[in-house]
């Protein structure tokens, strides 16, 4: 029995540490993505299919360093080939992209460099494009407001 426990302890100590896999989770009109185990030069690719009822996506990504080991420097972040806008760089990296069309297969690619224990996360917000009848009602409403204002 002692040999079994010694073997189990040795196996646990010598086993490689588990690496967390990159995640992408969509639920309704929003989602999250990220990876909490990046180091060195890295590329993470996230894909998702069409989302029923949604036609536009807005995305943001961030990483905040608490030390050199956790510092993440994004070299490129794209959604369907469109580069994110840089908001801030350095110890607090932040990028975003607004109102991009959702395609059949959507690809988010994150490239960068990190110390030994880097992490990043981001959010996805989905929006529907109003149907023509909705636009007609809105324009008609503006017209009635204009007519009422003109009478006064």
Order of helices and strands: HEEEEEEEEH
What structural class do helix, strand and pairing data support? alpha+beta
Ends: how far apart?
Answer: 95 Å
Radius of gyration: 23 Å
Beta strands, count: 8
Q: What fraction strand?
A: over 45%
Number of helices: 2
Mean model confidence by pLDDT: 84
Identify low-pLDDT runs.
Answer: 1-19
- What portion of residues is helical? 10-25%
Based on Cα principal axes, name the global outline: elongated
Structural account:
The longest helix is centred in the last third of the chain and has 20 residues, at 132-151. The chain is of the alpha+beta class and 152 residues long. Strands 1, 2, 3, 4, 5, 6, 7 and 8 form an eight-stranded antiparallel sheet that branches. It starts with a helix and ends with a helix. It contains two helices and eight strands. Strand 6 and strand 7 form a beta hairpin. It is elongated, with a radius of gyration of 23 Å.
